[in-house]
Amino acid sequence: MIFSSHIFLLYFLPAFLLLYFLVPVKWRNVVLLVASIVFYAWGAPDFILILLASTVANFYLVKAMHHAKRLGLKKLYCTLAIILSLGLLAYFKYANFFVDNVNALLTAFGLGAMSWTKVLLPIGISFFTFQSLTYVVDTYRGVNAPMQRLTDYVVYIIMFPQLIAGPIVRYTDIADQITARRRLRWDECLQGFYRFVIGLSKKVLIADVIGRTVDIVLASDLSSLDSSTAWITIMAYTMQLYFDFSGYSDMAIGLGRIIGFRFPENFDNPYNSTSITEFWRRWHITLGAFMRNYLYIPLGGNRHGTARTYLNLWVVFLLSGLWHGASWNFVLWGAYHGLFLVVERILSRHIPLFDTKRRHPLFVLPTFIILLVGWAIFRIEDLPSCWLFIQRLFDFGKPIFNSQFSIFNSQFYVTLLVALFFAFLTLFPFGKRMQRFAFHTNYSPKGHIPVWLTACLLFFFCLGALTATDFSPFIYFRF
To answer: Residue 182: which region, alpha, beta or left (left: phi > 0; alpha: psi -120 to 50)?
Structure first.
């Protein structure tokens, strides 16, 4: 089940909200727990027991860790909890990748390949794994005490608004909201509804429309593309990915707001960045925070000299690339971003013009071009095809707008222009005011009326668009 489906929008969500607000406050976690189990089981019935079993095991391991008297025993329980979480992630996400590469080596040396039954990837496994890891490590560090009730912990791990694709929520950020949510005000629920509709519109009216054309072009003969078609295609994918993923985050944040949770923001106009360093402070913010707090800092961060800092950045981004997918293109994508992060640090140390903290807005354009090439590596998993596409980007000798270009129809152009407008809107003062109004303003009772009407209109537009399209899961479901 996905948010952008008739089943969710017309049946599951209304039934859940009706029951959620009818029961006494003390029973709302139970309703949320049951709804989350149904939500996950609907899309991945084969994996719901694994998810629940690992969650329950982690709960008791962390409790035992907290109450252990000896440091050695405390470390043992912490290690077991981490191995349990990472072990499941490694098996389900990387077993196929490992076997495929071993078989490639065996075949290269003339040896027989291993027989192997492909392992299916449980949806959302990376996100609930990371969330459980934050709980284990923070409890070990003494940042928070362990939760007292198993049901509350399971709610924290598998609550359906952010179960599948984040944002990654640290327990310390919502501890009080899980155990003692207050009664909601109607205006907070409406704010959540508005945010949900914004996200739904991003996904259905922008990302899906662009994505259908992108898929057709990238499935065609890439050698026949001219540079203009290649640039428009990768720019369209760049917009598709952003509006798809940020749309999911908006929906998750909006749903959370409706039921009394305040999830952290996950995007902050990332394509307005003037450097790759700034981009990673604005893109998938909760993943960046996770990598910083639970990988970069434990590796030593910037505390052991310049060379070690650069190495730590590379390691973090190589692992970040591998986290995004069990394929070499993702590793290359991580190395690509790690390279630019290191280069920017070197330049900013010696050339004031390249100081990543005080860059001129004109740096937005070259940063965006670097990102476009990076997204080509991210999108095209077959490395020879990826290299061919990048060559097409910079092959200016072919005729501009050849026959392939005819695939871009007027709906595609209009949607892409709308996407670009909103992606770069906050570069300008009026855009910042628009965003504050849409996301953060507390409207007066009369002020809610036009906003509510607009949200309802967009909601029905989305329902109509969904009627005419095929199933379209969120891109980050696979990660």
So the answer is: beta
Phi, psi of 287 (to 5 degrees): -70, -40
What residues does each domain of the chain span? Answer: 6-182, 188-274+360-478
324 counts as catalytic: yes
Read off the pLDDT of residues 366-401 as tens digits, 9 standing for 90 and up.
999 999 999 999 999 999 999 999 999 988 776 555
Given the residues 324, 337, 350, 360, the one annotated as active site = 324
For the stretch 208-261, pLDDT in tens is 999 999 999 999 888 888 888 899 999 999 999 999 999 999 999 999 999 989
